[in-house]
Give the backbone structure.
Amino acid sequence: MQSLNFFELMKRIEQAVLELNQDGIVAIPTETVYGLAGNAFSEKAVRKIFTLKKRPFNNPLIVHIKSVNDLTNVAQEIPDLAYNLATTFWPGPLTLILKKKNSVAQAVTAGLETVAVRMPNHPLALDLLERLDFPLAAPSANPFGSISPTTAAHVFSYFGANLKNILDGGECERGVESTIIGFDDNNHPTLYRYGSISLEEIERVTGQIKIYNNEGVKPNAPGMLSKHYAPVTESILTEDVPGMMRIFPGKRIGLLLFKEKVTDDILVHQEILSETGDFEEAAKNLYSAMHRLDEKGPDVIIFQQLPMKGLGLTINDKLRRAAKK
Ligand code: TXA
Ligand code: MG
C-alpha cells in the first residue's frame, strides 16, 4: 500500500468521519495494533464490527476515548487507582475495565456490567476521535483468532474490498495489544491481559497485583481466549529450538527467534525479533514476523521462548496462545 500525501490523508479522515457518523466501520491505526472502529454508542455499528470480524458476540470490545475527562461518558464509580493509572499511562497502551454507563451499546460489552476503555496514543486515531461526538469501539482488525495486524497492508490482506476505508498510519509503534487491568469489589487491581506495558511498569504504580487466570474460563467471563493470535501453520513454543527441530526431520521448518540464529541449517525461513535482544523492538516486530513466516508456507513454525521478564512475559504469552492447539 502506498503512503498518502497530506491532502489525500485529510480527505480519508473526513470520509472516515462521514462513514462513522452513519454507523459505518473504518480501520484505524493505534500505537499497538490496527483496530476495526465503529460508534460505541450505536448497536448497529458495533454489530457490523462483530460480523465483519466473525467474532463471537460474547467476546466484548474495547472503547477508545480521546481524553481522561471522557472516561465519565462511558464509565462510572471509577476507582482512584484507575485515575492514577490513566493519568500515568494515557494516551497509551493501557486498557481499564470499569463499571459501564448505559450510553455504551450492549453489544460492545457483550451484556457485561463492565466496559473496557483506553485512550490510544496515535495522532491519526486521536485526530479522528476529536472530530466525533462519540467514542469508538474497536477490536483488533483481524478475523477472529488470526494474527493481529500491525500495518495497513495486513488489514487490507484480511478484509480487502469488504472494508471501504483503511486509515494508513504506518507501522504500529508498539506492535502488541494494550495491557488490560480490572478491579475487584475492593478496588484491588487484576491483570487481565499481558500487553505492551510490562507488569513491572504497572506494579510501579499499583504495587503487586493479581494475575487473572483465564484457562478453561468461558470467553464471556472477563478475559481472553486461550488460543489466539495464531498463524495458519502449526506452531510450537520451546526453549530448546535445536532439540525441537530434531523432532521434525525432513519437514520444512520456519523459525521465530529472539536475537540470534541457532542453526545454519537450511530452513524455509527464519525471523529474528531483535538482534540486540531489546524487548520493545521484539514486540514491535512480533506479528509482522509471524505474518511473514506464515506466508512462506512451512510445514511447522518453531517459536523460541523469550526470557521471562519485562515484555518477555507479554511476548511469551502471545506465543503460547498462538501455539495452542
Ligand atoms: O491494543 C488494543 O487493545 C487493541 C487496539 C485496537 O486498541 N484492541 C484490542 O481489542 O486488542 P481486542 O478486541 O482484540 O481485545 C479486547 C480484549 C478481549 O480479550 C476482551 O475479552 C477484553 O478485551 N475485554 C473487553 N471488554 C471486557 C470486559 N468488560 N471485561 C473483561 N475483558 C474485556
Ligand atoms: Mg484481538
About this structure: Residues 139-140, 148 surround magnesium ion (ligand 2) (CB under 6 Å).
